[in-house]
Structures are given as C-alpha cells and as structure tokens.
Amino acid sequence: MRTSIQKLGKTLMGPLSIIVASGLLLGIVSILQNPSIIGETISSAAAIQNFVGGVRAIVGTMFGLLPILFAISVATGMAKKDKEIAGFAVVIAFIIFHVVIGYLLNLNNITADTTSVDYLVEHGKTQIQASEIANAYEQILGVFTYRMGIFGGILVGLWTAFIHNRYHTKQLPTAFSFFSGNRFVPIVIIVTIPFISIIAYFVWPYFNIAVNSLGSLIGKAGALGTFLYGFSERMLIPTGLHHVLNQLIRFTPIGGTAVVDGETVSGALTIFNSVLASPNPDIQTLRESTRFLTQGNHPFMLFGLPAACYAMYKTAFLENRPKIKGMLFAAAATSFVTGITEPIEFAFIFISPILWLFHAFMSGLSYLLMTLMNVAVGNAGGGMIDLTIFGILQGTYTRWYLVVLVGLAYAVIYYFVFKFVILKFNVKTPGRNTDSELIEEQVTAGSDEDDLGTTILKALGGKENVVEIDNCISRLRLVLNDTSLVDESLLKTTGSMGMVKIDKSNIQVVYGPKKVEQAAHSLKREVEK
C-alpha cells in the first residue's frame, strides 16, 4: 500500500506543472496591472487589458479542467504498460462517471435550477443555507454533478488504471478476438464505471462532509496548522509521500475554501490563482491562501539550505573540498533559484536524524512565522523565481521583505547548527569520507551516457533484477525483483546523492534535477538492449 501511495503521489505532479506554469502567467499579468510598478498609462492601455483578459480566460479554463487532468495523470501514471490506452480509456470513464451521477441527481429532482441560490431562498432557505447547498454541485464538461474537485478525477483514474492493468492483455475466444487486449479495456470501463458512479452518488456527500470538516479543523488551528503542515511535509520527503500531502492542501477543501467572484473554489493554490485571475482581487482572501504556499518555503530554501551547504563545505576535509565544492554549489544554487531541495536534503537526512528533525522543525517554524507576519507570497515552488514574481514585483502588500529578514536569520542558524552537529557527531556529509577516490568518482563518473546506463544497471543487480523504471523531478524510482542486490557504493559512483529502500521491491535513487532525466534515459536504453 505504501508503494502504491508513493506512486500515486508521483502521478499527481503532472497537473501541478501545468497549474504552476499558469500561475506564473497570472503573476506576470498581475504585475502588468500594477500602476505603481509600470505606471498608470501602461497598466490601463487597451493592448495590456486585452492581453490580461486572454491570459485569464486561458488560465480559468485550465482550473476548470483540473479534475480530468488529474484523472488522466493518475491513469497513465499508474498504468504499467500501454499508457496511451489508459489515457484514452480514462476520458471515457470520466465522462460516463459524471453523466451517471448527473442522471441520478436528476431522478431526485436535483438540478442546476433547483440548487440555485435564488430558487432555494424562494423555498425557505436562508442565504447561507442556500449558498452551502448550491456549492455542493457544479457543471463539469457541461454535466451537472457533485462538486468533487480532484477527488473525482483521482477516483476515476485509479479505477481506470486497475481495469487497464488487469485486462489490457486479456485474450477473448476466437469469435471475439477483435475485442481482445487493449480494445477490451474501454469496453470493461463502459460496463463497470456506472457502478462506481452509483457508489459515489451515495458515499460522496458523507465523504465531502468529512473533508470539509478536516479543512475547517485545520483552518481553526490557524498558525499552528501551518506549523504542522510544514513540519510533516519535510518529514515525508524521504518517502516521496509529501507529494500527496501537498496536493491535498493545494487542490482540496483541506487547504481551505473561498468564494471568488461568486464561484466557490477549494484548495490553497486554486484559491490563490483564482484571486490573481480576478478583476478585483481580495487581498485578505489571497493572504489566507498563501499560508500553505511558497512563503513558508522561502526562508529555508533560499537561505537555510544554501547555508547548510556552506557548512558542509567548511567541515569537509581540506583535501576533499575542491572535489565537493562544485556539487554543493550546484545543489545550493538549485535550491535558491528553483526551490528543489532534495539534492541537499539527501546529503544529511539518512545519516543524521538530528539534522533531519532540525530541518523539519525549521520548516514548520518558517510556515508559522510567515503566517503570524501576514506575508502573502504564493505559488507552489519556493525559489527566487517565485519570490520575485509573486513577492517583490507584486508590491509591499506581500510583505516579501519579511521573508528576506527571516531568511537571513535562517542562514546564520542553519550554518552554525549544521557545523556544530557535523563536527560534534562526526556526521559523514560530503567531503568527510576518508575514501577520497570514491568522492572523486561521485563527482566525475557518468559523464558518458552509455557508461552511465551500464554502471547503474550493474549497480542494480543486472537486467534480470529490474522490473520497472520511472523518475520524478529529482529521483529515479525503480521496482526491482530484489533490492538487496543493489550495490550502493557502485551506485554512488554514477553521481547518486542518496538512496531510499522503500521495501524489498521498491527503491529510489536521488540524482537531482540536472541528471535524473539522463540517468533514467540511459538506464532504460541499457535495459532494452
């Protein structure tokens, strides 16, 4: 189950990349509308307004497609082979799923008309009661259905992947052989998905109450809730399950619910982007949504972890410093610019529980401080790009300067804590290994793509031991027949920054964003030979 959840978390990253890109566009157009930055004449120009309107239309459409985007991403990500067939089948499944729910609602006289606020008020409901009832439903792809958000997409994607993996190689009797294999998957989907819809029709209202209650509980926890989120998110980093937590906060009522321009939206990132896309943005609503977004990451991503890299460099043996300087600088620069931290974190979290707990605590504290200081810097990254676009260039209302002040304090704290712990407990961070040859190999090996794939495959126990190869933004995610056959020392010579053995069959190898794609491509090519 842990392996499946981990794999699910990886699949949820697909739609996020689209939404983050859309958010960057919104951030740019919001700057173009800020007269204090570009002047009143430019910000009110017809061409600028037309461009802004076009961007808002595109981004608004992307937000509306989030459920089906998650469905496609989950189905193709969880499918073991012939992923394009899973992608084809899940679109059919998604539409039928909501059509059946809409049909059942209509049988009970629950329609767009009978759930409108005006209709409900006319029939004795208060304005608040009417709004709560109306917000439970929505139109998606022209179908009136429950407002299920990404949960509906994830459910349909999981069911499609299950059917696909089970039946995509199914062979039927000769008379029906035309419908065998991949053609059989959509047929099974059409037959089975209505039953999933019926179950969802009866179960969803209760599940919705539970999710909204959890979101309300987190909301009432205030700054403490943000501390717990920041702490838990960093503690989950080694397992990869932090992606699941992030997406629940970003796209579901657990991360908050708000009404923007008369529309109910859920999830911290969805609310933030909806406010940015609004012609009349509500700054307080925006500020509430950002407490779970990048403002909590900036102090340790831009300042803390780069300082930790410097501490690791200063505590490295003198003869090894030139060998690890480039690696640590690249990791620090990656964290500073993009907010990708795993290349640094995997250098210490497995060898020093003290530093791991310290880092998680500082992450939670960062979220807590940003909330208490009413900072309002959003999006889903955490690097300098986000701070610039969504903080500095938005104006002083974001209070971005407080991020910098806290970050400078974080740099000092991280440096001295890391330096003290490393020296006190002789933590074997990069450059403190007595085997200098191994360190040199870690930095220089694997420049040739063919040699890289050959070496990785050998370190994994050979072709017969490899079952499945995948990767995320910084990790090689592998399914093996037996993880005990992995040669970790040899794997490190390919540039690996760390390794996580999930269980007897699943393993993750951290390469960082610069090299992971090359490693995955080389390994796949070597396995296919």
Report on this structure.
This protein is of the alpha+beta class. The chain has helices at 2-11, 13-32, 35-38, 40-43, 46-64, 66-78, 83-107, 117-122, 127-134, 149-167, 184-221, 223-235, 242-251, 268-277, 283-289, 298-315, 321-338, 342-345, 353-372, 384-390, 400-425, 436-444, 449-459, 488-492, 516-528; strands at 137-140, 143-146, 257-260, 263-266, 466-471, 475-480, 498-501, 506-510. The chain folds into 3 domains: 65-220, no CATH class; 292-425, no CATH class; 445-528, Glucose permease domain IIB (Gyrase A, domain 2). Helices cover 64% and strands 7% of the residues. A 4-stranded antiparallel β-sheet has the order 5-6-8-7, covered by helices on one side. Strands 1-2 form a two-stranded antiparallel sheet. A hairpin with a 2-residue loop joins strand 3 and strand 4. The longest helix has 38 residues, at 184-221. It starts with a helix and ends with a helix.
Give Rg in angstroms.
25 Å
Number of strands: 8
Q: Residue ranges: pLDDT <50 for 5 or more in a row? A: 435-447
How much helicity do the residues have?
Answer: 55-70%
Count of the separate structural domains: 3
| Beta fraction | 5-15%
How many helices? The count is: 25
* Main beta sheet strand tally, sense and closure: 4 strands, antiparallel
Mean pLDDT: 84
**Alpha carbon gap, first and last residue:** 32 Å
Strand order of the largest sheet: 5-6-8-7
User: In terms of structural class, how would the helical and strand content be classed?
Assistant: alpha+beta
Shape: globular
